[in-house]
Amino acid sequence: MLQKTAQCALEYGRQFIPQGAVADYIPELGKADPNQLGLCLFTKDGQKIMCGDVDQRFTIQSICKVISLATALQCEGFDKVFAKVMMEPSGDAFNSILKLDLASNRPYNPMINAGAIEVVSMLTPRFTFEQLLEYARILCMDDDIVLDEAVYHSEKATGDRNRAIAYLLKSKGVLEGDELKTVDLYFRMCSLSVNARSLAGLGLTIANGGVDPNNGVRLLDERVVRVVKTLMLTCGMYDGSGEFAVRVGIPAKSGVGGGIMGCVENRMGIGTYGPALDEKGNSIGGRQMLEYLSRELHLHIFDSLNA
Ligand code: GLN
User: Fold this and answer.
1) Do 111 and 179 have their domain in common?
2) Which of 113, 119, 237, 282 to mutate to test the pocket of ligand 1 (most atoms within 8 A of CB)?
3) Which residue from 253, 269, 252, 248 is spatially nearest to 203, judged by alpha carbons?
4) 64-121: pLDDT as tens digits
5) Which atom of ligand 1 is nearest to the CA of 116?
């Protein structure tokens, strides 16, 4: 039943691919095949539903912001993190520098680049990339995640805008430590190679309140997960977050590599892959598959049948 609905969602989402385009501002990302589409659902009761290109590896990109935020909240605590970054939707593009310069010293939220770079600056003195990689593998239930060297070098070579954001944060006195080390760690985190299954695993861990349902081990505190899910709902799809919340109503996070990770409270994690993006940088096929699933399975957070 779930398999059939997922298959229909895949066919539905496929129709929208021609309206999108692969990101190429990071040159290596431009090599992705825009026609690929994959959907994976991991339910709390152990079902694993997979359709389409679920094995294709791609880079996690902005979805790593969820992992860095959760890690920072876990080790620094709520007050320290939110002394440095706000919790408001920005309404601007993910890489915008505008409000950071004009309206506030603190980045608007941890899901846009400025906020994520600030959050990563809190992790830089405490963790090596290898430690964060290991943590990502555990949260995503995927031991095969590695650094995609080609994408990492490609972003590092062209990432002037993110370096500009880091320097601006530094000039405002919000970013402490070595800004280039921080941006380097941010680029590495964005270049983790995942697939739709890894994102479904991460979504399930979060949907399940931070406990791995396979073995009952608590990976994240409940209060950390609550904050992360709220910010995914309000800011996870950048300046498309409002419309996505109305139409889909699933806390989700997208990345320009083509992934979307969604979590349906207490029920399932969803991972989608489709590198053709809409004008806001969200996977167009992924977004439409999620809308289809939400409608068919009553997954909207405010759906009265969602019990
Ligand atoms: N690494 C990308 C960047 O910083 C992440 C952006 C995204 O996925 N939206 O531009």
Assistant:
1) yes
2) 113
3) 269
4) 999 999 999 999 999 999 999 999 998 888 988 888 888 788 999 999 999 999 999 9
5) 4
Supply the pTM of this predicted model: 0.97
- What tokens appear for 236 in the block? 């996870």
Residue 282 CA to ligand 1 center (angstroms) comes to 11
Atom index in ligand 1 nearest the CA of residue 191 equals: 1
200 and 171 in one domain?
no
Looking at the structure of the chain, the number of domains it has is 2
Catalytic center residues: 62, 65, 186, 238, 256
Whole-number Å distance, alpha carbon 1 to ligand 1 midpoint, is: 36
Ligand 1 center–CA 66 separation, angstroms: 13
Cα 98–Cα 101–Cα 104 angle in degrees, nearest 5:
105
Report the CATH number at residue 238.
Answer: 3.40.710.10
CA 248/CA 256 separation, integer angstroms: 19
Mean pLDDT of 160-182: 96
Enclosing domain of residue 180: 64-190
Q: Is it the case that residue 200 has pLDDT exceeding 80?
A: yes
Whether 225 and 247 map to the same domain: the answer is yes
Which of 134, 162, 190 is the last residue before a domain boundary? 190
Q: Which of these three, 150, 172, 190, is where a domain ends?
A: 190
Domain check: are 43 and 153 in the same one? no
Around ligand 1, the residues with Cβ closer than 6 Å are 61-62, 94-95, 113, 155, 162, 190, 255-256, 281
Q: Which of 283, 267, 264 is nearest to 196 (CA)?
A: 283
Provide the 3-class DSSP secondary structure of residue 264. strand
pLDDT in tens, 33-59: 999 999 999 999 999 999 999 999 999
Strand pairing report for 58-59 and 193-194: antiparallel
Predicted confidence (pLDDT) at residue 293 exceeds the cutoff of 60: yes
